[in-house]
Design brief:
Helices cover about 5% and strands about 45% of the residues. It contains four helices and 56 strands. The strands form 14 sheets. Strands 46, 49, 51, 52, 53 and 54 form a six-stranded antiparallel sheet that branches. It has a five-stranded antiparallel sheet with strand order 3-2-1-6-7, with no helix packed on it. β30 and β31 form a beta hairpin. The longest helix has 24 residues. It starts with 13 loop residues before the first strand and ends in a 24-residue tail after the last strand. The C terminus is likely disordered.
């Protein structure tokens, strides 16, 4: 502290310098220069704390000053320097000593009162931030401020009273509050500065901030724009902005997914996750979500969602429309089927099938196809079977599993059992087996009716019938001519009664018709006889060949055909003996070793249990050489008088004698014979027209069934064409069965 020693009067000198503090009357320090020389002056200090730390420095008269070492805040005050001169008046100089006390190093506390020794935080983005910077001491009162990047954030100073902290010194603090932490604070530092007045530089404390950030960006990237079912694709999710780095979670349709092929790459605040996806039709329309979440930030979540469009071929199913039930379908109902199609993209075409046969829209037949529906106006038994539908889109096609449509229907004759003709004899019992089809089949009931030749339709109440499921067996015995007629078998179930009965025509048995159209040909070692069988008479038949030999008298005239020898002397006629007899199921025979020199007569019969027919004849068959010899040794076969095989008008004057000398001649002659026979039959048939009438169920008269002989087609120029056998039933009239009498044979 300065004190001027320059006297006001020239050439005057200082005799005494005395320092006082405040109003104290006792000097703090004194300099006695009454000896006349300042350099040898006596320095004296009062023996207290302040006096021991003071010393008066005299460099020259103008720069004299009192030095106080280790000043404390108690040393502050007004000091007075009194200078006494030898001749001049005493002078007093007052010096105000103001001391500046530095505050302590700032101490930073968090909102919970914990001291921050390193990094402050963590603080959550969007939430508030609170830090308290506190210093102790300092004179005059220090200022405590918060700074960021050279910008003042907060300069509001809070003084903490001594009694609040229980200390003799005062504390100065600044409580920093940021209402909403922003991303701009991430990675920065805050400064707390403490500075008292007239300090050259503040005391600074830096504190780094740890800020937790939400993810800022989430993005899903698919490597293909079009997704097909069953074809793997790669998905990538990118996220940025999270601190610390975000964790990625994949979800498909709300379910967390992930596989060993998923990989993630994390940097300071970015993450990339890759995932291989194999999607199916069930994933179409699902949401694929990539969720980025900060594991240290509750609620620090950001996600992106994509709705997947998975293309797949149609998946098809078929069912009945509402209101229709399979268990109650009956003939005559209508029916509606619906084809359900799941596909992406939508199906462009739907095709319906019945038993693998494609159905078309046909209003006339009652088949209506519209979009995915199939409607039948009136169903019949033919509509039963499997139905399926096929749908087509741009990806492919799909076909539904079949649905089987079966319906209830009234009984009907089993196929092949609609109409039968039964041959029976009087007093012969026959079993009539009536077989039907019906649904349901567990409640089928049968009844029988009879329509005789008189036209009356009567129930068969006294006959014995055995019913078993879908079969009824009736024992029937015709005892009189009137018992031959028509029997009808009726069946019924819960749906209704049979519309058309199963018919049994009971006809009396008779012998078979004779074989016809017979021919004779020469083979290598035999004669071959071939005929066409006639009607069997209603019973199984077989065929019998008889060979009769008549000695030939040289020069004798050929007699008319007969099976009897000439009369003897007594006028009796003898029958030509049978030398050979053969039996066969077909009218075909081979003859060996016929002796030459004889006339042979061949007779072919048809035989059944009712008797045998009239024969078909070959007369005057002559053999020049034994049948069966060498080819070069044969001289031929002579066939004469084929009157039985030809019509009467042509056979009376026709005798054919054939001498065969070679194989070629045999063939030519046989062909000529065939042409002649065909022309003759055509002329005969043209004069007798065939009667062919339709069935009549209204006339109750029975006419037995007949077999008509095979017709021979003839061309316009009377040449014989290919022979065709026609088997038709003629003049069959069946009784009227409109009067239905149902007899329950179960009771």
């Amino acid at each position: 502290m300065p004190c001027s020693l320059i006297p006001p009067i020239a050439n005057d000198s200082v005799s005494m310098v005395i320092w006082f503090k405040g109003t104290d009357g006792i000097p703090l320090y004194s300099l006695d220069a009454r000896s006349g020389n300042l350099t040898t002056a006596i320095h004296s200090a009062i023996g207290n704390d302040l006096g021991n730390r003071t010393y008066f420095l005299i460099s020259d008269g103008q720069r004299a000053k009192l030095k106080v070492t280790k000043v404390t805040f108690k040393d502050q005050g007004i000091f007075r320097c009194r200078v006494d001169f030898v001749n001049s008046p005493t002078r007093n100089f007052r010096v105000n000593l103001t001391l500046v006390e530095k505050p302590s190093r700032p101490v930073i506390y968090d909102a919970q009162g914990r001291e921050v020794t390193g990094v402050a935080g963590p603080f959550l983005e969007g939430y508030n931030l609170g830090l308290n910077c506190q210093v102790s001491g300092g004179r005059p009162k220090p200022t405590v401020t918060w700074w960021k990047d050279g910008e003042l954030l907060d300069n509001v100073v809070d003084t903490i009273p001594e009694e609040a902290i229980g200390s003799s010194s005062k504390y100065t603090a600044n409580h920093l509050v940021i209402d909403k932490v922003t991303r701009s604070l991430w990675g920065t530092k805050l400064e707390c500065r403490a500075q008292s007045a007239q300090m050259s530089a503040p005391i600074v404390r830096e504190v780094p901030l740890d800020i937790y950030l939400r993810p800022a960006i989430v993005k899903i990237v698919l490597n293909e724009e079009k997704i097909y079912a069953g074809r793997p694709i790669a998905a990538r999710c990118e996220t940025w902005g999270s601190s610390p780095a975000a964790r990625i979670i994949w979800r498909l349709g709300g379910q967390v997914i992930g596989d060993p092929n998923m990989s993630s790459t994390q940097r300071s605040n970015s993450t990339i996750s890759k995932l291989a996806l194999a999607l199916g039709k069930e994933d179409d329309g699902k949401e694929l979500t990539c969720r980025a979440e900060n594991p240290r930030f509750p609620g620090g979540v950001l996600e992106q969602t994509k709705i997947l469009s998975v293309a797949y071929p149609p998946v098809v199913s078929i069912h009945l429309a509402t209101g229709y039930m399979l268990d109650i379908l009956r003939e005559g109902d209508d029916l509606k089927l619906i084809c359900n199609v799941e596909s992406n993209p939508a199906a462009t075409r739907i095709i319906w099938y019945h038993n693998d046969n494609r159905l078309e829209h046909d209003v006339t037949s009652g088949t209506l196809i519209a979009s995915n529906t199939l409607t039948f106006r009136v169903i019949t038994l033919a509509h039963s079977g499997e139905y399926s539908c096929k749908a087509i889109n741009s990806v492919g096609e799909g076909r539904s599993p079949p649905i089987f449509i079966h319906m209830k229907y009234t009984p009907r004759c089993r196929i092949g059992h609609e109409r039968r003709e039964i041959v029976a004899g009087r007093h012969e019992t026959v079993l009539l087996r009536c077989e039907v089809d019906a649904v349901p089949e567990d409640v089928v009931r049968f009844s029988w009716t009879y329509n005789g030749t008189r036209g009356d339709v009567l129930p068969m109440s006294n006959s014995r019938a055995q019913n078993n499921g879908l079969v009824s067996v009736l024992e029937y015995t015709p005892n009189a001519e009137t018992d031959f007629g028509t029997l009808a078998c009726w069946a019924s179930n819960s749906v209704g009664r049979q519309r058309t009965p199963c018919i049994f025509n009971i006809v009396p048995g008779k012998p078979p018709q004779p074989p016809f159209d017979c021919s004779l040909s020469n083979e290598t070692n035999s004669l071959e006889v071939n005929c066409v069988p006639g009607a069997d008479g209603g019973s199984p038949q077989y065929f019998l060949l008889e060979v009769r030999r008549v000695p030939r008298i040289p020069g004798a005239q050929v007699n008319p055909p007969t099976l009897h020898a000439p009369q003897n002397d007594q006028g009796t006629v003898g029958e030509i003996p049978v030398i050979r007899q053969e039996r066969n199921q077909r009218p075909q025979f081979l003859l060996h070793n016929l002796e030459p020199g004889f006339d042979y007569t061949l007779l072919v019969y048809a035989v059944n249990g009712r008797g045998r027919s009239e024969p078909a004849l070959f007369r005057h068959v002559r053999v020049a050489e034994p049948i069966g010899g060498k080819m070069e040794e044969r001289t031929g076969i002579f066939l004469e008088d084929l009157k039985k095989a030809l019509p009467k008008t042509s056979s009376e004057n026709l005798i054919i004698v054939i001498a065969l000398t070679g194989t070629g001649a045999i063939a030519l002659i046989l062909i000529g014979i065939g042409v002649i026979i065909g022309l003759a039959i055509c002329r005969k048939r043209s004069s007798s027209p065939i009667k062919n009438e339709p069935d009549d169920f209204t006339t109750p008269t029975y006419v037995s069934a007949q077999r008509v002989e095979p017709r021979i087609r003839c061309s316009g120029d009377n040449r014989r064409s290919q022979r065709t056998s026609l088997y038709i039933e003629e003049n069959r009239n069946e009784p009227d069965l409109l009067q239905r009498v149902e007899i329950d044979l179960h009771d």
